[in-house]
Amino acid sequence: MNDKLNIAVLTVSDTRGLDTDTSGQFLCDALTAEGHRLADRAIVIDDRYLLRARVSAWIADPEIEVILLTGGTGFTARDSTPDAIMPLLDVEVPGFGELFRHLSYLEIGTSTVQSRAIAGIANNTLIFCVPGSTGACRTAWDGILKTQLDISNRPCNFAELIKKGSH
């Protein structure tokens, strides 16, 4: 069994392009540094239907095992990532958002309550939604994702769960 994952990265932004997307680029660099494969990368404006369309296509693609979304998790009128993604999930991972906000609190204090970071599984595909700042992506990657996407992490990890298809 190949222990590395095929991961797609989606940046949710009305203003960023590939040349200015430092958050998405951080995630791409971090996942490839761990030996995972960048399966696809895209930027989509913050529109719940366009988000659902892109993420649904990736969920349906048997080659994509993990989807990392950055951006659109706040409370402004344009922040629709959690609202777009939640209906697509077969099961939610509530501990992800809780742990992310805990780690974030240690870095930015009470401002973390303005994050609606979420995670779940759909069609044996892991989906993680984190805020759009590069710092938030670093917090999520270093504090949670790096080890949970490592099949050797014990006592448990999401990589093994997805590889075995036994969620």
From TrEMBL:
InterPro entries linked: MoaB, MoaB/Mog-like_dom_sf, MoaB/Mog_dom, MoaB_proteobac, MoCF_biosynth_CS
Any one of the GO CC terms: cytosol
Annotated pathway: Cofactor biosynthesis; molybdopterin biosynthesis
Keyword tags: Molybdenum cofactor biosynthesis
Domain (MoaB/Mog) ranges: 8-152
Pfam hit, one: MoCF_biosynth
Ubl conjugation recorded as keyword: no
One GO-annotated biological process of the protein: Mo-molybdopterin cofactor biosynthetic process
Superkingdom of origin: Bacteria
Family, as annotated: Belongs to the MoaB/Mog family.
Record-linked PANTHER family: MOLYBDENUM COFACTOR BIOSYNTHESIS PROTEIN B (PTHR43232:SF2)
Function recorded in the entry: May be involved in the biosynthesis of molybdopterin.
Alphabetical list of NCBIfam families matching this protein: moaB_proteo, molyb_syn
Protein name per UniProt: Molybdenum cofactor biosynthesis protein B
Organism: SAR86 cluster bacterium
